[in-house]
Amino acid sequence: MSSKLLNTTSTNLISFPFISIFPHLQNYIHIYFSINAISFSQKLKTTSTYSINKSNIIETDRIEFKLNLPCSQYLRQKTIDSIAFADLMSSGALICQSQLRISSSNQDFLLMTNTICQFYRLTVVEKINSAASLYAETILEQPIALLFKSIVCIF
Any idea where the AP-3 complex subunit delta Mu C-terminal domain is (predicted)? Predict the structure, then answer.
């Protein structure tokens, strides 16, 4: 298991302070969890049990929830200049390489680049014609470097 809720108490229960719930009142409870691996998406599933005291009768119920954390949630936008990006690409510091081909689209290259940057928290380092250098860092300060190209195939 690479993710888990953090228990801040010494027992097996996580206790929260007394909370009054009235209509239109907002209460926030911060739940902390630990993630040991960020190289793949995480699925955190838990059950929260609560009790309500109604006229000296305690009613207990449960709320089950799932939290899906894709790898992009562990990325943060980071600016890097084109020289540092080129040095990173040629240094051998990037330990994993992958290639992905996406079906041709009628969308504008700039629009596609901006969409990818928004969804995956990437920064455009440099854009030349139909190629863009994209960069981000993980929350562990690991570099993520991408070269995004639009290739026209003529058959």
Answer: 72-150
User: What is the spatial distance between Cα 83 and Cα 44, in angstroms, rounded to a whole number?
Assistant: 39
Between the alpha carbon of residue 55 and those of residues 18, 19, 21, 52, 59, the distances in Å are: 16, 16, 15, 10, 10
Report the DSSP beta bridge partners of residue 46.
Answer: 65
CA atoms within 13 A on the CB side of 150: 16
pLDDT tens for residues 71-94? 888 899 999 999 999 999 899 888
User: pTM for the full model?
Assistant: 0.65
- Three-state DSSP at 117 gives helix
